[in-house]
Design a protein that fits this description.
Two copies of one chain form a homodimer.
Chain A (H helix, E strand, L loop, with lengths): L6 H29 L3 H12 L4 E2 H5 L6 H13 L3 E5 L7 E5 L1 H23 L4 H20 L12
Antiparallel strand pairs in A: 1-3, 2-3
Helix pairs in contact in A: 1-5
The first copy, chain A, binds a DNA duplex through helix 4.
DNA sequence: TATTGTTATACTCTATAACTATA
DNA sequence: TATAGTTATAGAGTATAACAATA
C-alpha cells in the first residue's frame, strides 16, 4: 500500500490521458467540421441509432453525461437541429423518450466515413490486430470496474 | 482499405473513449475538491515541477493545450493564485518564462496523495503489472504516432 | 418521499482574430 | 516576414439548485 505509484503506472497513466486527449481533440475537430456535432452529441446519436427504439433520458445519459441538466441541454440542441424528437414516455409518465429522426441518421451517415478515417489514421495505424484486442480487453475491464465503483465523490477521501 | 472499422476496432475505440472520459471526470473531481485545480492546471504544474528550471510558454503548451490563448489564460490563473511566476525570458526577448513557486509545489504535494489514490482505485485496481506495461507501451506508440502526424485539419479530408 | 426531467443561472474552458513586440 | 505572447471577445459545455410532475 505504498503512497505513490510505480513509475510504470505513472507513465501509463499520463500517456493514457495524453493520447486520449489528443484523440478526443482530433475527433472533435472532424465531427465539428464535417457534421457540426460535438463528440457528446455524436455519442448520443450513435446510441439512439443503435437502439431498437426510443430511449428515456436516463437510459441515454448513462456513461455519456454526468449531470441531468447537461443531457437536457444537449437533447434540446439535437432536437432543435431536427436530429431527434422528444416525447412523453408510454409507461412511466414522468419519463421523456428520445428517438432519432431520419435527419439524425443521415447526419451520422454523413459524418461516419471521416470519423472512421480519423480514428484509423490517428489511433489504429500504429497498432497491430493483437494490440487492438489487448487494448479493448484492458479498457473494457477498466470501464466495467469504474462503473461498478461507488460514485466516489471527494468525500471520504479527505485526510486533512 | 475498407471504409469501416473492424468490430474489434470500433469496440476498442469506444471503450477507450468512454473509460478515458470516466477517468478524466473522476480525476477532475478530486483535483477540484482537494486542490481547486483543473486537470490542465495540474498538468502544467507537474511539468514545471519536473523541469530543471523555468519553461517558456511554448514549451509548456506542448501537448497540454491546443491554442496559445488558452495557455495564456491558464497561466494567468495560476499566476493569480500564486502558484507560478511569469517573467521575461533571458535569451529571446519575445519569450515569457514560467516558473513554479513554493506555493505551487505545496499545492502539488497537497493534491498528489489523493490523486494517486483515485488513479489507483479507478484505473489500476483491475489491472495486472503486465497489463500496465502493455497499456503504457501501446498508448506510447499511439501518442508518438499522433504527435508525428501533420496537424490534420479537416481540410483535405472532405468528400462532399 | 423518491424519481424524472426541465429551467434558470453562473462559471469555466476554449478558440478566433486583432494586436504588440521582438527576431 | 515570421514568431512569441497577450488581449478582447464570443461561444460551447457543464454543473448546481430550485422547481414541477408523477410514482
Amino acid at each position: 500500500m505504498a503512497d505513490d505509484l510505480a513509475p510504470e503506472q505513472l507513465r501509463a497513466y499520463f500517456v493514457l490521458m495524453e493520447s486520449a486527449s489528443l484523440l478526443h481533440h482530433a475527433v472533435e475537430q472532424q465531427l465539428r467540421a464535417e457534421g457540426e456535432l460535438s463528440y457528446v452529441q455524436f455519442q448520443l446519436l450513435m446510441r439512439l441509432a443503435g437502439a431498437d427504439g426510443p430511449l428515456t433520458m436516463t437510459e441515454l445519459a448513462d456513461g455519456v453525461v454526468y449531470s441531468r441538466s447537461g443531457l437536457t441541454h444537449q437533447a434540446g440542441l439535437l432536437e432543435k437541429a431536427g436530429l431527434v424528437t422528444r416525447g412523453a414516455g408510454p409507461g412511466d409518465q414522468r419519463s421523456t423518450v428520445v428517438e432519432i429522426t431520419d435527419a439524425g441518421r443521415e447526419r451520422v451517415a454523413k459524418v461516419l466515413p471521416g470519423h472512421v478515417e480519423v480514428t484509423r489514421g490517428q489511433l489504429f495505424e500504429p497498432l497491430s490486430g493483437k494490440d487492438v484486442r489487448v487494448l479493448g480487453d484492458i479498457m473494457t475491464r477498466v470501464r466495467d470496474h469504474m462503473r461498478a465503483q461507488p460514485p466516489r465523490s471527494a468525500a471520504g477521501r479527505k485526510r486533512r
